[in-house]
Amino acid sequence: MSEIVTTTCTTSDGLTLEAELARAAGSPRAAAVLCHPHPQFGGTMRSIVIGALFDALPEAGVTCLRFNFRGVEGSEGFHDSGSGEQLDVLAAIATLDAQIDASLTMLLAGWSFGADLTLATASERVAGWFAIAPPLRSVPDFSAVARDPRPKLLALAEHDEIRDAEWVVDATRDWVATDIEIIGGASHYFVGRTNRIVESALRFVDRLTSPT
Questions:
Q1: d(Cα 128, Cα 177) in Å, to the nearest integer?
Q2: Are 156 and 133 in contact (CB under 8 A)?
Q3: In percent, how much of the chain has pLDDT > 90?
Q4: What whole-number distance in Å separates Cα of residue 118 and Cα of residue 153?
Q5: DSSP sequence for 119-181
Q6: What is the mean pLDDT of residues 8-28?
Q7: Residue 115: in which H helix or E strand, if any?
Q8: Who's near 78: CB < 8 A, 6+ residues apart?
Q9: Which of 42, 46, 121, 177 is 20 to 30 A from residue 212's alpha carbon, by CA?
Q10: Is 81 left (phi over 0), alpha (psi -120 to 50) or beta?
Q11: How far apart are CA 92 and CA 68, in angstroms?
Q12: Which residues pair with 85 in a beta bridge?
């Protein structure tokens, strides 16, 4: 079983965010920051897809940090329509980085609103981006990550009610180093399909950590 500890992240604009760290069971092979869905629609760090990843990845050797965006539950501040939340993601990356070996591969992952924030964060510490059902409308600019040569995996729901999967495929057609998986039978909420998201994440970790 992985060890779970309560921690905090401090943003560059002085907010304290609540977070949880789940350490890899055994020797860690990677680490991941997990970004939750839209706060104004009930999203928290315990939302179903983020919870599934937080439960499963540590057992596969991936240390995980999940956190609540500003204004959510015990995190300070107020919802900032994706702008201030970009600082939250950077704070979470820094918090996780301080808890792991500097040589460990770090993955940035998110679902829905969190996927958009993931794809807006071109941190040098990140080895790859895993975006689950990104609506591609929560922030104005994805160009830095879109042009980045590091790997990106977009996991889309076949029957997404928020943003049609084919729309996302078309919108990201010219993105660099970007692969897309469409999860058959899934809605935006992945009820009954979270195992498929975990499997995709683990394959992506394998890819990022395999010798080239």
A1: 10
A2: yes
A3: 96
A4: 11
A5: HT---TT-SEEEEES--S-SSS--HHHHH--S-EEEEEEEE-SSS-HHHHHHHTTT-TTEEEE
A6: 97
A7: helix 113-119
A8: 70, 71
A9: 121
A10: left
A11: 10
A12: none
Reply yes or no on whether the pLDDT at 1 is more than 70: no
Mean pLDDT across 165-172: 98
Q: Per the structure block, which two tokens stand in for 106?
A: 């770090």
Q: Are 179 and 155 in contact (CB under 8 A)?
A: no
pLDDT at 99: 96
pLDDT at 90 over 90: yes
The pLDDT-based confidence of 205 (bands split at 50, 70, 90) is very high
Q: Is the pTM of this model over 0.90?
A: yes
R_g over Cα of the chain = 15
Measuring CA to CA, how many Å separate 192 from each of 34, 112, 185?
A: 20, 17, 9
Residue pair 150/129 in contact (Cβ under 8 Å)? The answer is yes
Structure tokens of 136? 């591609």
Single-letter code of the amino acid located at 106:
M
Tell me the average pLDDT of the chain: 97
pLDDT higher than 90, residue 2: no
Q: How far apart are the first and last CA of the chain?
A: 31
